[in-house]
Amino acid sequence: MINTMECVADAQSLISISLMKIHNSRTQRGGIKLHKNLLVSYVLRNARQVYIKEKYAEIYRMQQYEEVMTVCNEIQELNPLELDAEDAEDEDLARTTCCGEDFQRGSMKDPEPAYYRSCCMEAPLPPCDQLSVNINTHCNKTTVLDLDTHVVTTVDNGYIHQDCCCDAFQCAQSAQAPAKKRKMDFGYCTSDLDELQDFTTSRKRLRREDCVYSCQDFTDTSNISNLISIFGSGFSGLLSRQADLEQICSKQALAGLGAWTRAIVAF
Amino acid sequence: MAGPGGDMQWCFSQVKGAIDDDVAEADIISTVEFNHTGELLATGDKGGRVVIFQQETENKNPPQFRSEYNVYSTFQSHEPEFDYLKSLEIEEKINKIRWLPQKNAAQFLLSTNDKTIKLWKISERDKRPEGYNLKEEDGRYKDPNSITKLQVPVLIPMDLMVEASPRRVFANAHTYHINSISVNSDNETYLSADDLRINLWHLEITDRSFNIVDIKPANMEELTEVITAAEFHPHQCNTFVYSSSKGTIRMCDMRASALCDKHTKLFEEPEDPSNRSFFSEIISSISDVKFSHNGRYMMTRDYLSVKIWDLNMESRPVETYQVHEYLRSKLCSLYENDCIFDKFECCWNGNDSVVMTGSYNNFFRMFERGHRRDVTLEASRENSKPLQVLKPRKVCAGGKRKKDEISVDSLDFNKKILHTAWHPQDNIIAVATTNNLYIFQDKVI
């Protein structure tokens, strides 16, 4: 367990420094030093663990707070007899609302999970693109900057495609599964409300959270994203040593963060 | 040791190298090694040169002043090369020098860079032939028709000339960077270790070597540790050890199998969980391993400490000495400026009672095992008067700084002592700063 005195900001800067070291090692005289890069990858892994853990804790805290607030609001607003109508309305909303509109409506909250950005973002994109990138299988996307050709591509489950704004309906539907999984991952205690309502509220929450992109300070994490590149094979053997973190985070989320550990040159 | 009530003090003897502060990269000393008698002291530098110093044997008076070391031979051991297949430059930096035991009038040493090991013969020539029948003095051939008499060439004295010639080149056996070479006690074989493999060579055979350790995983993505140092046991020709970046040492017996992937002993100390940090893996990586002269112990150096291991006990070291524990709180800065990757070496004295290693600010540390005393000394031009006694230095880790103490923040991390060597019999030490070689000796009272 890393000393908890190491804060998220330190972890972030360590990640930046480590990636820069790996990048610089490519041009060092005498070739890439395997030993040094291995040690740097350990620091990268440790910093990432702390960073993710803190971010998840932050998300969890925010989710708890929002859930409580949402439940309170809905208790006040909802007439129990209109429960089904309300859900149907939300469904329509999800189908027809443009990503951009959602972005406009969403509250500008802070706890945008940075791992989304690190995993999926290469540079700040228009809100529409951000949302689609975030919702669509966010944990299986990896943005790659090829240092030789300077081309940015997104690898999605092994398939390369361009970043674009997807259909809102697909956004909403695909958002359900990850949102639901997130709830369960955090040991989230579902309320006594109808399960369908949970879906609704979680979708609303997801839209709100993902729409805060443009308000974030991209400096650090966009720099981190810019530095990520896949050189070749990585030291994914390090991924096996995450016992403590896996108690908190889902394996799926972690697997999607393979980009972090692959920023190493292998021979 | 220069401790309270100590009966030994160290004094300055000599310093070799340029005086100016502007250090040429090629002059940075990368290895230091005494030969088996201590008469010769070899240094290698980043420019691929080897400089050998010889101790003068004639002047032994006055008794408190030991003989000086003077330049004996200088030669270019390795040149920069280019691997066209991988588009990689191969540095000429000399990573290690190891002397062979002397068998005849000539001296032999092995020197290695990242990829190639060379066997050098250093021989003296103090006579030259004169009176050839077919050649003039300047080497031109005579007209055979002009020769009227026959003479026997004679050898006449000449000024001593030391020649270094490469006798063997052991190349193309290492994919990764060579970090260690070690001559076996059988005087016929030696090992060379890179990040993932260890090869066994015969000194006479250059076109093949045996791979005896291979820790390369089938999938490089699963790589978790590399080999950092390796050494043969001083007496048992079948035994060698290699250290890893994870802080473990494996002892192998070559009689067990051809490929020594299974160790016979694994030396590992459990990590203290209270010391866990971002940099735990880096500071536990072993940078040097050395057997004691008597073959009963071995010493390992990691970033912050020196550990002595009893070869019969694998669970933990028998002694641990903190070299510069005050750096533990500075690891983040040391990571940023790359100092945390510095590979410090360590050495034993002749009778294994004292160990020595380097630190920053041109400090070096000695730990007296029996008396549990330690001292910090400094190699600097300011303390370079002949026979000047070195004053112990002290680093103030925190709190109120006493007079003569240096605070941690004042340490110069560009002045580091990575390489030290101890004369095999006498109390003479060679300490390499960036581009200078300091020779200190004990003051006989």
TrEMBL record, chain A:
InterPro entries: IER. Pfam families: IER. Belongs to the IER family. This is Immediate early response 5 like. It comes from Mugilogobius chulae. The lineage of its organism: Eukaryota, Metazoa, Chordata, Craniata, Vertebrata.
Automatic annotation (TrEMBL), chain B:
The keyword Oxidoreductase does not apply. One of its GO terms (molecular function) is protein phosphatase regulator activity. The lineage of its organism: Eukaryota, Metazoa, Chordata, Craniata, Vertebrata. Signal peptide: none annotated. PROSITE patterns: PR55_1, PR55_2. SMART domains: WD40 (SM00320). SUPFAM superfamilies: WD40 repeat-like (SSF50978). Transmembrane segments: none annotated. Keywords: Repeat, WD repeat. Belongs to the phosphatase 2A regulatory subunit B family. This is Serine/threonine-protein phosphatase 2A 55 kDa regulatory subunit B. The keyword Protease does not apply. One of its GO terms (cellular component) is protein phosphatase type 2A complex. PP2A consists of a common heterodimeric core enzyme, composed of a 36 kDa catalytic subunit (subunit C) and a 65 kDa constant regulatory subunit (PR65 or subunit A), that associates with a variety of regulatory subunits.
